[in-house]
């Protein structure tokens, strides 16, 4: 039995509408894929890359064109990067200006880092916490040239109470507030929060790095504890934690110049003491970039 003209007409119309629907969906998908990614990098000196060539932005922020944000944006072809990372930044400076100085001389003010966030931001990376907890200051205080001296851990862990770990615990609600602020200002953005790396191996390497063995182990344990706080707080506040500690094992400051990702008290390559060098920033870019690329 032959279909009637009415049935033929309806069938043809459905086919036409289906084709239009497929074309529209394909066009919409292509348009979404073509939307340029807007990436905002927030954070402290681990993210800014102080003394790594070449400097960019406000000099006192120690921001490098070879920090992990710049390297990652280049490798992934991200067209818009707003890098406002700055040495010395804490959670307070996400929403407040940061006074800057170079060798104790005032060097202007960095705007609140949140000023870089906009509604069209699609990706945010955040590295923060080291200055809230004061880890570099503790590491400097623990520097020891006398192998027979008392471990500095005793200054910070008294009667079983670890004052450095307590600072990490106090940092958690500050980080939660920062993440809430990012989501509010950039609701479409994917937010990645990094931890901190492997700074010194267990037992240390005195006198290559002037830390007593027990203090070296304890200091890295404090970094690891801060990482655990960052990881749990990120998971509870709509952000993805990126572990750079595990893949950086074996690239600590005790290693040779070609293997280390972080410098020690006396840098062997252009970088600030107790901070990532260019190889470290490049490695972090690969680690964070892999998370971005894998969705």
What is the secondary structure topology, with strand pairs?
Elements: H1 5-34, E1 38-43, H2 45-48, H3 68-76, E2 80-83, E3 98-102, E4 105-110, E5 123-127, H4 130-133, H5 135-141, H6 153-156, E6 157-158, E7 161-162, H7 163-185, E8 190-194, H8 213-235, E9 240-242, H9 278-293
Parallel strand pairs: 1-2, 1-5, 5-8, 8-9
Antiparallel strand pairs: 3-4, 6-7
Helix pairs in contact: 3-9, 7-8
Q: Would you write up a description of this structure?
A:
With 295 residues, the chain is α/β, with parallel strands linked by helices. Helix content is 41%, strand content 13%. It has 9 helices and 9 strands. It has helices at 5-34, 45-48, 68-76, 130-133, 135-141, 153-156, 163-185, 213-235, 278-293; strands at residues 38-43, 80-83, 98-102, 105-110, 123-127, 157-158, 161-162, 190-194, 240-242. The strands form 3 sheets. The protein has a 5-stranded parallel beta sheet with strand order 2-1-5-8-9, with helices on both faces. Strands 3-4 form a two-stranded antiparallel ribbon. α7 packs parallel to α8 (213-235).
